[in-house]
Input
Amino acid sequence: MRFGLIYHHQLPRPWEEDSEERLFNESLEQIELADRLGFDYAWATEHHFLEEYSHSSAPEVFLAAAAARTNNIRLAHGIVSLPAAVNHPVRVAERLATLDLISGGRVDFGSGAGSSQLELGAFGVDRDTKKDQWEESLEVITRLLTETPFTGHQGKWVDVPPRNLLPKSKQKPHPPLWMACSARTTIETAARNGIGALSFSFVSPAEAKEWVDTYYDIIASDECVPAGRDVNPNFSVVFPFMCHPDEETALDRGLDGAHFFSYSLMHYYITGQHRPGVTDVWQDFQDNRASVGLTREPAAPADGEEPTAEAKAMLEQITSLRRGIGTPEQVAEVIRQYEQAGVDQLIFSVQVGKNRHEHILESLELFAREVMPEFVERREARETAKRERLAAPVKAALGRIRKNAADVSDYVISPELGA
Output
Protein backbone atom coordinates (compact mmCIF):
# COMPACT_ATOMS: atom_id res chain seq x y z
CA MET A 1 0.00 0.00 0.00
CA ARG A 2 1.22 3.46 -0.98
CA PHE A 3 0.05 6.70 0.60
CA GLY A 4 -0.44 10.09 -1.02
CA LEU A 5 -1.83 13.54 -0.34
CA ILE A 6 -3.96 15.48 -2.82
CA TYR A 7 -4.21 19.25 -3.02
CA HIS A 8 -7.24 21.04 -4.45
CA HIS A 9 -6.17 24.23 -2.65
CA GLN A 10 -9.56 24.88 -1.18
CA LEU A 11 -10.07 28.38 0.19
CA PRO A 12 -13.51 29.09 1.66
CA ARG A 13 -14.56 32.70 2.08
CA PRO A 14 -14.08 35.21 3.66
CA TRP A 15 -10.70 35.95 2.09
CA GLU A 16 -7.92 38.16 3.37
CA GLU A 17 -5.24 39.87 1.29
CA ASP A 18 -2.68 37.12 1.96
CA SER A 19 -5.07 34.13 2.04
CA GLU A 20 -3.90 32.55 -1.21
CA GLU A 21 -0.23 33.14 -0.50
CA ARG A 22 -0.59 31.54 2.92
CA LEU A 23 -2.55 28.64 1.43
CA PHE A 24 0.21 27.71 -1.02
CA ASN A 25 3.01 28.14 1.50
CA GLU A 26 1.24 25.97 4.06
CA SER A 27 0.59 23.29 1.44
CA LEU A 28 4.28 23.24 0.56
CA GLU A 29 5.19 22.90 4.25
CA GLN A 30 2.83 19.93 4.49
CA ILE A 31 4.40 18.23 1.48
CA GLU A 32 7.87 18.92 2.82
CA LEU A 33 6.89 17.19 6.08
CA ALA A 34 5.20 14.33 4.20
CA ASP A 35 8.42 13.77 2.28
CA ARG A 36 10.41 13.45 5.51
CA LEU A 37 7.78 11.15 7.02
CA GLY A 38 7.85 8.69 4.11
CA PHE A 39 4.63 9.48 2.24
CA ASP A 40 4.85 8.32 -1.36
CA TYR A 41 2.93 10.86 -3.45
CA ALA A 42 1.86 14.50 -3.50
CA TRP A 43 -0.94 15.06 -6.02
CA ALA A 44 -2.11 18.44 -7.33
CA THR A 45 -5.37 18.99 -9.17
CA GLU A 46 -6.01 21.41 -12.01
CA HIS A 47 -9.17 23.52 -11.90
CA HIS A 48 -10.11 26.92 -13.24
CA PHE A 49 -12.55 29.51 -11.89
CA LEU A 50 -13.97 27.22 -9.17
CA GLU A 51 -13.92 29.78 -6.36
CA GLU A 52 -13.41 28.33 -2.86
CA TYR A 53 -13.50 24.74 -4.17
CA SER A 54 -10.12 24.86 -5.92
CA HIS A 55 -7.54 27.60 -6.37
CA SER A 56 -5.20 25.12 -8.09
CA SER A 57 -5.07 26.56 -11.61
CA ALA A 58 -1.30 26.14 -12.21
CA PRO A 59 -0.32 22.80 -10.63
CA GLU A 60 2.87 22.58 -12.69
CA VAL A 61 4.18 25.67 -10.88
CA PHE A 62 3.15 24.35 -7.48
CA LEU A 63 4.71 20.94 -8.09
CA ALA A 64 7.94 22.56 -9.25
CA ALA A 65 8.10 24.43 -5.95
CA ALA A 66 7.46 21.14 -4.14
CA ALA A 67 10.26 19.51 -6.14
CA ALA A 68 12.73 22.10 -4.84
CA ARG A 69 11.77 21.36 -1.23
CA THR A 70 11.63 17.55 -1.28
CA ASN A 71 13.84 14.57 -2.06
CA ASN A 72 11.82 11.37 -2.39
CA ILE A 73 8.06 11.96 -2.60
CA ARG A 74 6.60 11.56 -6.08
CA LEU A 75 5.03 14.69 -7.57
CA ALA A 76 1.84 13.86 -9.39
CA HIS A 77 -0.66 15.62 -11.61
CA GLY A 78 -4.12 14.64 -10.56
CA ILE A 79 -5.05 15.70 -13.16
CA VAL A 80 -4.04 17.83 -16.16
CA SER A 81 -7.06 18.76 -18.28
CA LEU A 82 -6.18 17.63 -21.81
CA PRO A 83 -8.58 19.29 -24.26
CA ALA A 84 -6.20 21.34 -26.40
CA ALA A 85 -8.12 24.56 -25.76
CA VAL A 86 -7.20 24.22 -22.08
CA ASN A 87 -3.68 22.78 -22.43
CA HIS A 88 -2.04 22.31 -25.81
CA PRO A 89 -0.37 18.87 -25.87
CA VAL A 90 3.03 20.32 -26.81
CA ARG A 91 3.00 22.58 -23.76
CA VAL A 92 1.89 19.69 -21.52
CA ALA A 93 4.75 17.50 -22.77
CA GLU A 94 7.31 20.30 -22.35
CA ARG A 95 6.21 21.04 -18.79
CA LEU A 96 6.11 17.36 -17.83
CA ALA A 97 9.61 16.72 -19.13
CA THR A 98 11.03 19.79 -17.43
CA LEU A 99 9.41 18.94 -14.10
CA ASP A 100 10.60 15.36 -14.40
CA LEU A 101 14.19 16.53 -14.91
CA ILE A 102 14.30 19.06 -12.09
CA SER A 103 12.67 16.58 -9.68
CA GLY A 104 15.10 13.76 -10.51
CA GLY A 105 12.47 11.63 -12.21
CA ARG A 106 9.71 11.86 -9.61
CA VAL A 107 6.73 12.89 -11.79
CA ASP A 108 3.50 10.97 -12.39
CA PHE A 109 1.12 12.21 -15.08
CA GLY A 110 -2.59 12.00 -14.40
CA SER A 111 -4.91 13.35 -17.06
CA GLY A 112 -8.58 13.80 -17.76
CA ALA A 113 -11.13 15.52 -19.95
CA GLY A 114 -12.58 17.95 -17.41
CA SER A 115 -16.21 17.95 -16.31
CA SER A 116 -17.40 21.22 -14.78
CA GLN A 117 -19.41 23.32 -17.23
CA LEU A 118 -18.02 26.46 -15.59
CA GLU A 119 -14.56 25.35 -16.72
CA LEU A 120 -15.41 23.70 -20.04
CA GLY A 121 -17.53 26.64 -21.13
CA ALA A 122 -14.78 29.14 -20.34
CA PHE A 123 -12.40 27.38 -22.73
CA GLY A 124 -15.00 26.55 -25.37
CA VAL A 125 -14.74 22.79 -24.86
CA ASP A 126 -17.71 20.78 -26.12
CA ARG A 127 -18.90 18.38 -23.43
CA ASP A 128 -19.95 15.82 -26.05
CA THR A 129 -16.46 15.59 -27.55
CA LYS A 130 -14.21 16.16 -24.53
CA LYS A 131 -13.34 12.47 -24.11
CA ASP A 132 -12.28 12.23 -27.75
CA GLN A 133 -10.15 15.34 -27.24
CA TRP A 134 -8.53 13.76 -24.17
CA GLU A 135 -7.69 10.58 -26.06
CA GLU A 136 -6.15 12.43 -29.00
CA SER A 137 -4.07 14.77 -26.83
CA LEU A 138 -2.77 11.91 -24.67
CA GLU A 139 -1.53 10.10 -27.77
CA VAL A 140 0.27 13.23 -28.99
CA ILE A 141 1.86 13.89 -25.58
CA THR A 142 3.27 10.39 -25.16
CA ARG A 143 4.61 10.40 -28.71
CA LEU A 144 6.21 13.82 -28.22
CA LEU A 145 7.99 12.48 -25.14
CA THR A 146 9.23 9.30 -26.80
CA GLU A 147 9.85 9.99 -30.50
CA THR A 148 13.08 11.58 -31.77
CA PRO A 149 11.93 13.37 -33.79
CA PHE A 150 8.18 13.50 -33.25
CA THR A 151 6.84 12.56 -36.69
CA GLY A 152 3.78 14.81 -36.63
CA HIS A 153 0.07 14.49 -36.04
CA GLN A 154 -2.97 15.63 -37.98
CA GLY A 155 -6.11 15.02 -36.01
CA LYS A 156 -9.63 16.20 -35.47
CA TRP A 157 -8.77 18.44 -32.54
CA VAL A 158 -5.11 19.32 -32.89
CA ASP A 159 -2.40 19.40 -35.57
CA VAL A 160 1.28 19.29 -34.70
CA PRO A 161 3.97 19.19 -37.44
CA PRO A 162 7.15 17.12 -37.15
CA ARG A 163 9.41 18.56 -34.47
CA ASN A 164 11.83 17.33 -31.82
CA LEU A 165 10.50 18.02 -28.33
CA LEU A 166 12.96 19.54 -25.87
CA PRO A 167 13.67 18.60 -23.19
CA LYS A 168 12.85 14.90 -22.89
CA SER A 169 11.77 13.40 -19.58
CA LYS A 170 14.22 11.63 -17.26
CA GLN A 171 11.89 8.65 -16.83
CA LYS A 172 11.79 6.34 -19.83
CA PRO A 173 9.75 5.93 -21.84
CA HIS A 174 7.78 8.67 -20.04
CA PRO A 175 6.35 9.41 -16.58
CA PRO A 176 3.71 6.90 -15.38
CA LEU A 177 0.24 7.63 -16.76
CA TRP A 178 -2.92 7.89 -14.68
CA MET A 179 -6.52 8.78 -15.50
CA ALA A 180 -9.23 10.48 -13.47
CA CYS A 181 -12.04 7.97 -12.82
CA SER A 182 -15.41 8.57 -11.21
CA ALA A 183 -17.45 5.58 -12.39
CA ARG A 184 -17.09 1.98 -13.46
CA THR A 185 -17.02 2.99 -17.14
CA THR A 186 -13.99 5.23 -16.68
CA ILE A 187 -12.26 2.54 -14.59
CA GLU A 188 -12.69 0.23 -17.58
CA THR A 189 -11.35 2.91 -19.94
CA ALA A 190 -8.25 3.34 -17.79
CA ALA A 191 -7.62 -0.40 -17.80
CA ARG A 192 -8.10 -0.73 -21.55
CA ASN A 193 -5.48 1.99 -22.01
CA GLY A 194 -3.02 0.49 -19.51
CA ILE A 195 -3.30 3.59 -17.32
CA GLY A 196 -3.41 3.89 -13.53
CA ALA A 197 -6.91 4.55 -12.16
CA LEU A 198 -7.39 7.64 -9.98
CA SER A 199 -10.72 6.87 -8.37
CA PHE A 200 -12.07 10.22 -7.22
CA SER A 201 -15.36 8.76 -6.01
CA PHE A 202 -15.43 8.05 -2.27
CA VAL A 203 -16.05 4.33 -2.75
CA SER A 204 -16.43 1.87 0.09
CA PRO A 205 -13.99 -1.05 0.42
CA ALA A 206 -16.65 -3.39 -1.02
CA GLU A 207 -17.19 -1.14 -4.05
CA ALA A 208 -13.45 -0.70 -4.41
CA LYS A 209 -12.98 -4.47 -4.62
CA GLU A 210 -15.50 -4.71 -7.46
CA TRP A 211 -13.77 -1.89 -9.34
CA VAL A 212 -10.28 -3.27 -8.64
CA ASP A 213 -11.26 -6.74 -9.86
CA THR A 214 -12.76 -5.26 -13.04
CA TYR A 215 -9.69 -3.11 -13.60
CA TYR A 216 -7.15 -5.91 -13.23
CA ASP A 217 -9.26 -8.37 -15.24
CA ILE A 218 -9.06 -5.97 -18.19
CA ILE A 219 -5.34 -5.25 -17.63
CA ALA A 220 -4.74 -9.00 -17.92
CA SER A 221 -6.88 -9.38 -21.06
CA ASP A 222 -6.43 -8.73 -24.77
CA GLU A 223 -8.50 -5.56 -24.29
CA CYS A 224 -5.51 -3.74 -22.78
CA VAL A 225 -3.83 -1.69 -25.50
CA PRO A 226 -1.52 0.88 -23.87
CA ALA A 227 -2.27 4.50 -24.71
CA GLY A 228 1.36 5.38 -24.00
CA ARG A 229 4.54 3.40 -24.35
CA ASP A 230 4.26 1.59 -21.02
CA VAL A 231 1.67 0.09 -18.67
CA ASN A 232 1.00 1.56 -15.23
CA PRO A 233 -1.19 -1.04 -13.45
CA ASN A 234 -2.26 0.81 -10.32
CA PHE A 235 -5.55 1.56 -8.60
CA SER A 236 -5.97 4.39 -6.11
CA VAL A 237 -8.79 5.63 -3.89
CA VAL A 238 -9.23 9.15 -2.50
CA PHE A 239 -10.97 10.22 0.71
CA PRO A 240 -10.81 12.98 3.36
CA PHE A 241 -8.42 12.37 6.22
CA MET A 242 -7.71 13.57 9.75
CA CYS A 243 -6.09 11.51 12.50
CA HIS A 244 -6.00 12.14 16.27
CA PRO A 245 -5.73 9.88 19.36
CA ASP A 246 -9.24 11.00 20.35
CA GLU A 247 -12.03 10.24 17.86
CA GLU A 248 -14.15 13.25 18.78
CA THR A 249 -11.19 15.58 18.34
CA ALA A 250 -10.45 14.04 14.94
CA LEU A 251 -14.06 14.67 13.92
CA ASP A 252 -13.94 18.21 15.31
CA ARG A 253 -10.83 18.91 13.23
CA GLY A 254 -11.68 17.11 10.01
CA LEU A 255 -15.38 16.53 9.43
CA ASP A 256 -16.42 20.09 8.55
CA GLY A 257 -13.67 20.21 5.93
CA ALA A 258 -14.85 16.92 4.43
CA HIS A 259 -18.44 18.14 4.39
CA PHE A 260 -17.48 21.41 2.72
CA PHE A 261 -15.53 19.49 0.09
CA SER A 262 -18.64 17.46 -0.72
CA TYR A 263 -20.94 20.51 -0.67
CA SER A 264 -18.72 22.65 -2.89
CA LEU A 265 -18.26 19.74 -5.30
CA MET A 266 -22.05 19.42 -5.60
CA HIS A 267 -22.33 23.19 -6.01
CA TYR A 268 -20.12 23.26 -9.09
CA TYR A 269 -21.01 19.93 -10.64
CA ILE A 270 -24.65 19.24 -9.76
CA THR A 271 -26.77 21.74 -7.87
CA GLY A 272 -25.26 25.22 -7.73
CA GLN A 273 -26.23 28.46 -9.43
CA HIS A 274 -22.94 30.33 -9.41
CA ARG A 275 -22.33 34.06 -9.86
CA PRO A 276 -18.58 34.59 -10.49
CA GLY A 277 -16.97 36.79 -7.86
CA VAL A 278 -20.22 37.04 -5.91
CA THR A 279 -21.49 33.65 -4.72
CA ASP A 280 -20.33 32.80 -1.20
CA VAL A 281 -20.09 29.00 -1.25
CA TRP A 282 -18.99 28.77 2.39
CA GLN A 283 -21.99 30.76 3.57
CA ASP A 284 -24.31 28.69 1.39
CA PHE A 285 -22.77 25.60 2.99
CA GLN A 286 -23.47 26.94 6.48
CA ASP A 287 -27.05 27.82 5.55
CA ASN A 288 -27.93 24.63 3.70
CA ARG A 289 -25.71 21.82 4.96
CA ALA A 290 -28.39 20.30 7.21
CA SER A 291 -30.85 20.06 4.32
CA VAL A 292 -28.43 17.80 2.42
CA GLY A 293 -27.44 15.74 5.45
CA LEU A 294 -23.95 17.20 6.00
CA THR A 295 -24.17 17.20 9.78
CA ARG A 296 -22.21 15.52 12.57
CA GLU A 297 -24.81 12.75 12.77
CA PRO A 298 -26.60 12.15 9.44
CA ALA A 299 -30.37 11.97 9.74
CA ALA A 300 -31.66 8.40 9.84
CA PRO A 301 -35.08 7.30 8.52
CA ALA A 302 -37.94 7.33 10.97
CA ASP A 303 -38.74 4.06 12.72
CA GLY A 304 -40.49 1.69 10.36
CA GLU A 305 -39.79 3.87 7.32
CA GLU A 306 -38.00 2.19 4.43
CA PRO A 307 -35.41 4.56 2.95
CA THR A 308 -35.50 5.15 -0.78
CA ALA A 309 -32.61 4.09 -3.02
CA GLU A 310 -31.63 7.76 -3.36
CA ALA A 311 -31.65 8.19 0.43
CA LYS A 312 -29.50 5.10 0.87
CA ALA A 313 -27.01 6.35 -1.70
CA MET A 314 -26.84 9.77 -0.06
CA LEU A 315 -26.35 8.27 3.40
CA GLU A 316 -23.55 6.06 2.10
CA GLN A 317 -21.86 9.04 0.43
CA ILE A 318 -22.08 11.11 3.62
CA THR A 319 -20.82 8.20 5.71
CA SER A 320 -17.88 7.77 3.34
CA LEU A 321 -16.73 11.32 4.07
CA ARG A 322 -15.72 10.32 7.58
CA ARG A 323 -14.13 6.99 6.70
CA GLY A 324 -10.59 8.36 6.99
CA ILE A 325 -11.26 10.59 10.00
CA GLY A 326 -10.60 9.03 13.39
CA THR A 327 -8.05 7.50 15.70
CA PRO A 328 -4.95 5.67 14.42
CA GLU A 329 -6.63 2.35 15.21
CA GLN A 330 -9.80 3.30 13.32
CA VAL A 331 -7.91 4.60 10.31
CA ALA A 332 -5.65 1.54 10.22
CA GLU A 333 -8.67 -0.78 10.19
CA VAL A 334 -10.18 1.11 7.24
CA ILE A 335 -6.88 0.89 5.35
CA ARG A 336 -6.68 -2.85 5.97
CA GLN A 337 -10.07 -3.21 4.27
CA TYR A 338 -8.87 -1.33 1.18
CA GLU A 339 -5.65 -3.31 1.20
CA GLN A 340 -7.65 -6.54 1.20
CA ALA A 341 -9.75 -5.16 -1.65
CA GLY A 342 -6.58 -4.84 -3.74
CA VAL A 343 -6.22 -1.05 -3.73
CA ASP A 344 -2.64 0.02 -4.44
CA GLN A 345 -2.68 3.58 -3.11
CA LEU A 346 -4.78 5.63 -0.72
CA ILE A 347 -4.75 9.37 -1.37
CA PHE A 348 -5.76 11.63 1.50
CA SER A 349 -7.57 14.94 1.03
CA VAL A 350 -6.17 16.85 3.99
CA GLN A 351 -6.32 20.47 2.86
CA VAL A 352 -10.10 20.79 2.51
CA GLY A 353 -12.58 23.30 3.88
CA LYS A 354 -11.11 25.23 6.77
CA ASN A 355 -8.91 22.44 8.09
CA ARG A 356 -6.14 24.08 10.09
CA HIS A 357 -2.53 23.81 8.98
CA GLU A 358 -1.20 22.81 12.41
CA HIS A 359 -3.84 20.07 12.72
CA ILE A 360 -2.85 18.67 9.32
CA LEU A 361 0.81 18.55 10.34
CA GLU A 362 -0.03 16.81 13.63
CA SER A 363 -2.23 14.32 11.80
CA LEU A 364 0.46 13.43 9.26
CA GLU A 365 3.03 12.88 12.00
CA LEU A 366 0.69 10.70 14.03
CA PHE A 367 -0.25 8.63 10.99
CA ALA A 368 3.37 8.13 9.96
CA ARG A 369 4.33 7.10 13.48
CA GLU A 370 1.44 4.80 14.42
CA VAL A 371 -0.26 3.60 11.23
CA MET A 372 2.08 3.64 8.26
CA PRO A 373 4.73 1.15 9.51
CA GLU A 374 2.34 -1.81 9.44
CA PHE A 375 1.60 -1.30 5.74
CA VAL A 376 5.15 -0.43 4.74
CA GLU A 377 6.27 -3.72 6.31
CA ARG A 378 3.95 -5.67 3.98
CA ARG A 379 4.59 -3.52 0.92
CA GLU A 380 7.58 -5.23 -0.68
CA ALA A 381 6.08 -8.73 -0.59
CA ARG A 382 2.73 -7.44 -1.85
CA GLU A 383 4.23 -5.47 -4.73
CA THR A 384 6.59 -8.31 -5.70
CA ALA A 385 3.66 -10.71 -5.93
CA LYS A 386 1.75 -8.20 -8.04
CA ARG A 387 4.66 -7.73 -10.46
CA GLU A 388 5.02 -11.49 -10.87
CA ARG A 389 1.28 -11.91 -11.41
CA LEU A 390 1.15 -9.19 -14.07
CA ALA A 391 4.50 -9.81 -15.80
CA ALA A 392 3.08 -11.88 -18.66
CA PRO A 393 -0.08 -9.75 -19.22
CA VAL A 394 1.94 -6.52 -19.21
CA LYS A 395 4.46 -7.97 -21.68
CA ALA A 396 1.59 -8.99 -23.93
CA ALA A 397 0.00 -5.55 -23.65
CA LEU A 398 3.27 -3.85 -24.60
CA GLY A 399 3.26 -5.96 -27.74
CA ARG A 400 -0.09 -4.42 -28.69
CA ILE A 401 1.16 -0.80 -28.62
CA ARG A 402 0.19 0.95 -31.83
CA LYS A 403 3.30 2.00 -33.74
CA ASN A 404 3.62 5.19 -35.73
CA ALA A 405 5.08 4.38 -39.14
CA ALA A 406 5.42 7.89 -40.56
CA ASP A 407 8.71 8.59 -42.34
CA VAL A 408 9.93 12.18 -41.93
CA SER A 409 13.51 11.62 -42.99
CA ASP A 410 13.07 14.11 -45.86
CA TYR A 411 11.19 16.68 -43.81
CA VAL A 412 12.99 20.04 -43.76
CA ILE A 413 11.98 23.40 -42.31
CA SER A 414 13.26 26.48 -44.12
CA PRO A 415 13.17 30.02 -42.72
CA GLU A 416 10.72 32.27 -44.50
CA LEU A 417 12.55 34.98 -46.41
CA GLY A 418 11.80 38.43 -45.08
CA ALA A 419 10.26 37.10 -41.87
